[in-house]
Amino acid sequence: MPAKTIRTKADLAINGSPPAFAEPLHVGRPNIGDREAFLGYVNRILDSRWLTNNGPVVQAFERRIADYLGVKHCVAMCNGTIALEIAIRALGLTGEVIVPSWTFVATAHSLYWQGITPVFADIDPSTHNLDPDAVRRMITPRTTGIIGVHLWGRAAPVDALQAIADEHGLKLMFDAAHAFGSSYRGQSIGRFGACEVLSFHATKAFNTMEGGAVVTNDDELADTLRLMRNFGFQGYDNVVHPGTNGKMIEVCAAMGLANLDGFDAILASNRRNHAAYRQALAGLPGISVLDYDPAERNSHHYVVVEVSEAHSTLRDDLVAALHAENVLARKYFWPGCHEMRPYRDLFPHAGLMLPHTRQVAARVMILPSGTTLPEDSIATICSVIRLLAQGSA
Ligand code: T4K
């Protein structure tokens, strides 16, 4: 069914009019590649009766990902959070680890869950990524590492963070959950720091339903990661390392192989959507759509809208109006990890060191994109935003 045309404020669902879309439009609606190819893999998996525990499809998937990123090792895991936890443990991080607060809460949880204190450093408001000077300010004698996050797939300041880590004898790793297919100075994300952690969750540009991986060029680290994701087993009956169950199953790897073949089409569709949003919202008072550096690769998966400081209440008004129209815009990653209960209790005054995080958290919303977004829906979504933004000017 075509979307309702919205021309005046009276047409908005918040004014009692029916919603623009009969079905909800989601941020993170899964991209599904070649269904026949996926089902073919699933049939072969069922026939082979090899469902998990480092099966042949997982091994093929790991090779494809490593080749795609130009990295030596891909260690596939059941999800990105477990991959973060295992990588943190494999690197021997303890005490305090510096992370941004402006990230999905899994970055902080993966430390706190294993008794490590996440120490939140502020971001550069223009990039939404860690500010190296802020990282320096948070280093204490207990600091053992830094986790940079490539937020929205835009690379963290890799070289500056590496320089800080080298100077202070800290381990550096990256949460690259958003950054599959991104680059930093022309090189694929996946090769930086001691290791990088990918998420292949259903809502990511490239998904394996649930899944994640640690990618690294370090042979010894890769061996340890492989042991740790499988209870520390080396062959039958021989446990040589503490471990957990972090294995990816065969069906998830099959989804990954099918989706990897279709990844170029996903990228093209995301780029089109992003350009259409930017064009439709260009010049609107108080509204900007975060751009991606044309010199770098990025999946353009996240359509990040930022409201200017002068229009401070507009973000929440927009989210409410869009939800009423069945457009489920998200406030990722409001209010920042430091404001979430476990961390607020731990560091009640953390916000004092995070002025840019607080500022950005109040202003950002993410709009639906992906291959399933109905044609012409962007025009309707943007007409809702235009009506409210013009009204607030
Ligand atoms: N680090 C960072 C920086 C991350 O962003 C994430 C994950 C991680 C680490 C951890 O990686 P994983 O352990 O998840 O592999 C979603 C995702 O669950 C999460 O993976 C992702 N980041 C985060 C940004 O978004 P929620 O709580 O917002 O998910 P939810 O259930 O609200 O779903 C989002 C939207 O997608 C909804 O409108 C419904 C729609 N949806 C969702 C699923 C699962 C569908 O239409 N179909 C689906 O199958 O966290």
Q: How do the helices and strands follow one another from N- to C-terminus?
A: EHHEHEHEHEHEEEEEHHHEEHEHHEH
Helix-strand makeup class: alpha/beta
Q: What portion of residues is helical?
A: 25-40%
Number of strands: 14
CATH names the topology of the largest domain as: Aspartate Aminotransferase, domain 2
Q: How many separate domains?
A: 2
Sketch the major β-sheet.
Answer: 7 strands, mixed
Net shape: globular
Strand content: 5-15%
Oligomer: single chain
List low-confidence stretches: none
The rounded distance between the terminal residues' Cα atoms is 33 Å
How would you portray this structure in words?
The chain has 393 residues and is an alpha/beta fold. It folds into two domains: 9-28 and 263-329 and 368-392, Aspartate Aminotransferase, domain 1 (Alpha-Beta Complex); 35-261, 3-Layer(aba) Sandwich (Aspartate Aminotransferase, domain 2), CATH 3.40.640. It has helices at residues 35-48, 56-69, 80-90, 106-112, 132-137, 158-168, 219-228, 250-261, 263-281, 314-324, 341-346, 355-361, 377-392; strands spanning 25-26, 73-77, 96-100, 117-121, 143-149, 171-175, 183-184, 187-188, 196-199, 212-216, 287-289, 303-307, 327-328, 364-367. The strands form four sheets. It has a seven-stranded mixed beta sheet with strand order 2-10-9-6-5-3-4, with helices on both faces. It has a three-stranded antiparallel beta sheet with strand order 11-12-14, covered by helices on one side. A two-stranded parallel sheet has the order 1-13. α1 runs antiparallel to α8 (250-261). The two termini are 33 Å apart. The mean pLDDT is 96. Bound molecules: ligand T4K. Ligand T4K binds at residues 26-30, 79-81, 103-104, 106-107, 149, 175, 177-178, 199, 201-203, 212, 328, 332. Residues 26-30, 79-81, 103-104, 106-107, 149, 175, 177-178, 199, 201-203, 212, 328, 332 line the site of ligand T4K.
